[in-house]
Design a protein that fits this description.
The protein contains 19 helices and 21 strands. The protein has about 525 residues and is an alpha/beta fold. It is globular. The structure holds nicotinamide-adenine-dinucleotide. Nicotinamide-adenine-dinucleotide binds next to helix 7 and helix 8.
């Protein structure tokens, strides 16, 4: 059974990972197509930028309303391409997208207002970058792409979007949404294709790049962008630690662990992956995980997106077992169903040297590692170079906050998994190998504007008026500097003296040259 195929004459086809049904096919864009689309976005930018913000938000509101009206049909379309239950498409894509768009429409006017820069008639205006390129992934094809695109649009940019080759059916649906919402021509252009189309886009002349995907692809893109010095936001892979303290609410932690790691087949960048559990509650926590995982046998679960992903996951689980991990649940190809199903796995006694712990697994595998105490858990959590998110489980909120502050990640939740705690109104992003910059929330909007400072009446003129310099000018500036320190008022007489001296020298200079200072 296939997932995606590139057939002659180079046609990309997307398949349903649960059934193998063919969903959509498309001819990838050529280099000429990509240049043309970027040019169309560039040509449309001035008119779009010159609209009032309320007019731009009007189109976004229409998009929101269509999405709300047609939520079930759209969720079904997302589900067939990801292979996941309808509830996951509704709960994890449609609802947060609607909420994110509402937040955008409500907050953008205030967030995009000019801000005062200093106290002397200087303002920083929110100017769009121009054309923003968005290169996206497939695991949440609606939510992860639409809010980013709309934030860029609200700020006055036009967008060229390259959806994932594993989500072209969903992308065609999203393209229709933009058409129905009545965005002007060229405001949102879509480049179809695989990594090659993405590479063409990174070489095109866009003004800012937003990438969501794996660390390796992100680094290749950064290397390409370094040649032109283009700014970017990088939302890359995660490998989130899940720290279970001695006093954790164990039942809540176990249920959340299973939901966090198994929904969407673990294919969420902020799914918990490395479970560090304090020794004294280790077996008890494992038992609870086992019970919750076994109960899932009766439920509809999401398959892995591709066969290579399933093979990789199986290989890593086997390898961990060979290196001493205990396989407590799952780890088989689910042959009862068509598609790339893999029974959720519980692996105990893992350690950080195992690939299953080190790599971004993107699969329904819970890897548990015992630790002596919370301090050791934090050390181990921070030993992985990725820094997207983490969660801490404890009934002591003070200890929870302390541990959260010690974790080298972009986001932490206490007694929650980030997939529930991360919210479209809150900015999202990692640190270290997991990337930089923020998407969504207020900081997400800020990523799409350049704060251009316009000095309407500036004190810089003070120095210009002192030119050409007389010795008294240095005295005057020295007094101005000391006045700013503690007890600086004692320098006021000095300031007055040097100002008078400067005025005299300046008058003499004017007499000599006959010049009139403005
Ligand atoms: P991927 O890196 O293979 O591809 C992502 C996108 O980039 C696709 O559209 C692809 O065609 C394009 N691409 C790949 N190589 C490229 C290159 N050299 N130049 C330009 N474009 C290129 O990742 P994926 O398999 O689509 O997604 C899974 C990864 O994404 C996981 O590692 C996951 O953790 C990560 N992810 C991160 C976030 C986040 O917000 N941090 C969200 C979702 C997924």
């Amino acid at each position: 059974m296939k997932t995606m195929e590139l057939v002659s004459p180079k046609i990309l086809i997307s398949f349903n990972p649960s059934t193998g049904e063919k969903l959509a096919e498309i001819v990838p864009d050529s280099s000429k197509d990509v240049s043309l689309k970027v040019k169309r976005a560039d040509d449309a930018q001035d008119n779009w930028k010159n609209l009032r913000i309320s007019q731009r938000l009007e189109s976004i509101r229409r998009l929101h309303d269509i999405l709300s009206r047609e939520s079930e049909r759209i969720a079904n379309n997302l589900s067939v391409e990801t292979g996941r239950p309808l509830q996951e498409s509704l709960g994890a894509e449609i609802l947060p997208t609607l909420r994110g768009l509402q937040f955008l429409c409500k907050s953008a006017p205030a967030l995009l207002k000019p801000i005062r820069a200093g106290s002397h008639g200087m303002f920083a205006y929110a100017e769009p970058y121009g054309v923003v390129a968005v290169i996206g992934t497939w695991n949440y094809p609606l939510y992860l792409n639409i809010i980013t695109i709309c934030q860029a649009l609200a700020a006055g940019n036009t967008v060229v979007w390259k959806p994932s080759e594993l989500a072209i059916h969903s992308a065609l649906e999203i393209e229709k949404l933009f058409e129905l919402a009545g965005f002007p021509d060229g405001v949102v252009e879509i480049v179809y294709g695989d990594a090659e189309a993405g590479r063409l886009l990174t070489r095109a002349d866009c003004d800012k790049y937003v990438f969501t995907g794996g660390v390796q692809s992100g680094r290749s893109i950064l290397a390409e962008l370094a040649k032109s010095g283009k700014p970017s936001v990088m939302e890359l892979s995660g490998n989130d630690a899940f720290i279970v303290c001695m006093d954790a609410p164990l039942e809540l932690a176990a249920r959340s662990a299973v939901w966090g790691r198994v929904s969407n087949a673990g294919q969420s960048c902020i799914a918990p992956q490395r479970f560090y559990v304090v020794q004294s509650i280790y077996e008890s926590f494992l038992n609870r995980l086992r019970v919750h995982l076994e109960a899932l046998r009766l439920c509809e679960l999401t398959p892995l997106r591709t066969e290579p992903a399933r093979q990789r996951c199986h290989h890593l689980v086997r390898e961990a077992v060979e290196h001493g991990a205990r396989l407590l649940v799952g780890g088989e190809f689910d042959t009862q169903k068509p598609g790339f199903h893999y029974t959720p796995v519980l692996l105990a006694d893992c350690n950080d040297s195992m690939s299953v712990m080190k790599e971004d697994l993107f699969a329904p595998v819970i890897t548990v590692c015992p630790v002596m105490n919370e301090h050791e858990a934090v050390l181990k959590a921070n030993s992985n170079p990725m820094g997207l998110g983490a969660s801490v489980w404890t009934n002591d909120i003070v200890q929870g906050k302390k541990l959260a502050s010690q974790l080298k990640v972009g986001m932490v939740s206490i007694n929650d998994v980030l997939m529930d705690a991360s919210h479209p109104e809150v900015s999202f992003g990692g640190v270290r190998s997991s990337g930089f910059g923020k998407l969504r929330g207020a900081q997400g909007i800020a990523e799409f504007v350049v704060r251009k400072v316009v000095a309407e009446h500036s004190v810089i003129g003070f120095r210009r008026h002192l030119f050409p310099y007389f010795p008294s000018a240095a005295e005057l500036l020295k007094s101005a500097a000391t006045i700013r320190g503690a007890g600086g008022w004692r320098s006021v007489p000095n300031l007055i003296r040097s100002a008078i001296a400067w005025q005299r020298q300046f008058s003499a200079f004017k007499k000599k040259t006959g010049e009139n200072k403005p």
